[in-house]
Amino acid sequence: MKYYKTVKEEKEVRDAQATKAVADIILKVRQEKDQALKDLSIQFDKTELEKIQVSRKDIEKAYELVDAHVVESFKKAAEQISFYAKEQLACMKPLQVQSPVAGVELGHRLIPVDRAGLYVPGGRFPLPSTALMLILPAKIAGVKEVVVCSPANKEFGTIHPATLVAMDIAGADKIYTVGGAQAVAAMAYGTETIPKVDLIAGPGNRYVTEAKRQVMGTVGIDSLAGPSEVLIAADESANPTYIAIDLLAQSEHDAFAKSILVTTDESKVEQILSEMERLAKDLPTGEAAMDSFEHNGTIIIADSMDEMAQIANEAAPEHLEVHTKDPVEYSKKLYQFGSLFIGEDAPVALGDYCSGTNHTLPTMKNARFANGVWVGTFLKTSFVQHITKEGLRNLSDTCMTMAHTEGLAAHEMSVALRMQ
Questions:
Q1: How do residues 95-140 score in pLDDT, each as one tens digit?
Q2: DSSP three-state, residue 150
Q3: Which position among 160, 319, 323, 359 bears the catalytic label?
Q4: Which residues share a beta bridge with 260?
Q5: Is the pTM of this model over 0.90?
Q6: Is 321 a catalytic residue?
Q7: Is 275 a catalytic residue?
Q8: Catalytic residue from among 252, 318, 344, 412
Q9: Phi, psi angles (nearest 5°) of residue 73
Q10: What is the dihedral of CA 124, 130, 134, 135, to 10 degrees?
């Protein structure tokens, strides 16, 4: 293995300044509630909010501002995302089973959280796809109330119409024009307008991520996301143009995005880099993408197919593309990833928008132990036991002996009294 290209400089995604800034925002929201949200909207979003909650009238107006073909695309994507989420839910079953010990019945129940708070970023462009990816699994899981926060768009003075339409198609119960760390704080602690939630999910910038870190425990969170990532594993059969555009597609996210190419064929690397430059010239995001790749892109030459798989598994990337002769067979060697894209005709873009799998995924090697947002994110697996007198008798000696060993006399007596 050798590095053909390395990262110029690792960018810090968490620092003392961000930690303090977020702590100050959270405190302000807890103390001043709605007024804090309005003040912070002026400060950060350059928008003066007349109201925080989006009305039905606002949503209907948004439909008028979005092209009908775009709306239809959202609906088709929603169908795919819903299909996948429903199939995932079907794999999860409540449990009720008779223990080998007579009189003891064990099980679990799948219980959705009462209220989920979802964060849909704004940024340079609207992100209606994220609205679909977050809201649909929550609704399909059976969450009683799904509330969504997203920052105001300066042009419209409220959430971007395309994002509002996607939120409505997905079935959001309540929508609020609030962005950044203050949105996380509002959902965690509540304000006069925004209710407290049980779980917060959704991606965001480093301030949103830091806010999720600081409120974790007060509410549940899905994950702590870092910069978006792709790793492309390619052999000599790979199409250089496809690899080039997929590296650009990842790099255009932002200045922190990480694009990694691992290949067994060094001879194609220069062609891939040339294709990136050629394609970037025709992209409005091309210059920014090339700059991001220049600073954060990595190219690794693997000595063998097995080594390439080992490198990919150690990286545990958010997105993992497989461009090899037999991608289905080769993908069996891969087991550390947020989402896997098998074959040259499966670009990450399809997963980002409409194949059906979720695009809110673990980053920063968290795929070693975590998964992306799915219906299970919004479900608790809560344990159940039903024990009869016979079951109590059969377990009593074991229980009392262990309680006595641990010095918990009331535990021991709680069984002993029942045995009298």
A1: 999 999 999 999 999 999 999 999 999 967 899 999 999 999 999 9
A2: strand
A3: 319
A4: 231, 298
A5: yes
A6: no
A7: no
A8: 318
A9: -65, -40
A10: 90
